[in-house]
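Example S7 (structure tokens).
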């Protein structure tokens, strides 16, 4: 059983997608152990309460330096035996004290086709640049800004009349599909990191992990 911790700052819609995928059996042999948030008003807390998941709000202002803040999280999650950390709209750059303890065990979802448009407002960056395809990426977290090895991506069209809101909503639907899929791959031990490349073991050859998730991801 892989214990999963989720770090979130806001509404937690990807957190909910993970909850649903575990509860409906899509992700097996895993459990959501704890939600950590930096925002006491985060709606993700209510989601955790509804599903009986422990949650804690850790205020960075009360934790000394940024490194001390993440060192505290690392200690907490180590004690709980966490095997995977999933960032779900966590609006802070993860620092080395947490990354070092959970190297290649922290994943994030980003609303752009990395390495294009890292950082905040990936959807707005895509619109401003005029790309015809946008999307989302699940990747491992390293010391850079959205620079870790890419696990899976999904692409969506960008229409001429799109606003940041409409494009964000289109991308979000795919975020809710590929994040559970990436977690399932991790839990099943089917991911191997080779330098910058992520190799998926026993991957169905007719399915692409670049453009869209497999059709069994509902």
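Recovered sequence:
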């Amino acid at each position: 059983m892989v214990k999963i911790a989720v770090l979130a700052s806001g509404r937690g819609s990807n957190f909910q997608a993970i909850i649903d995928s575990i509860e409906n059996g899509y992700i097996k042999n895993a459990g959501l152990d704890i939600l950590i948030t930096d925002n006491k008003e985060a709606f993700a807390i209510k989601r955790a309460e509804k599903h009986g998941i422990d949650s804690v709000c850790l205020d960075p202002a009360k934790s000394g330096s940024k490194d001390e803040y993440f060192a505290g999280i690392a200690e907490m999650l180590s004690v709980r035996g966490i095997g995977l950390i999933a960032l779900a709209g966590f609006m802070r750059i993860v620092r080395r004290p947490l990354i070092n303890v959970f190297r290649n065990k922290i994943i994030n979802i980003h609303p752009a086709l990395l390495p294009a448009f890292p950082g905040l407002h990936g959807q707005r960056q895509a619109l401003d640049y005029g790309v015809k395809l946008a999307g989302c990426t699940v990747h491992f977290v390293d010391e850079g800004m959205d620079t870790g090895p890419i696990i899976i991506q999904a692409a969506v069209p960008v229409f001429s009349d799109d606003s940041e809101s409409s494009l964000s909503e289109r991308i979000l639907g795919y975020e809710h599909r590929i994040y559970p899929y990436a977690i399932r791959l991790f839990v099943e031990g089917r991911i191997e990191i080779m330098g910058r490349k992520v190799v998926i073991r026993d991957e169905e050859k007719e399915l692409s992990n670049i453009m869209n998730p497999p059709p069994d991801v509902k």
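Notes on this example. The helical segments are 13-23, 44-50, 66-79, 96-101, 122-129, 164-187.
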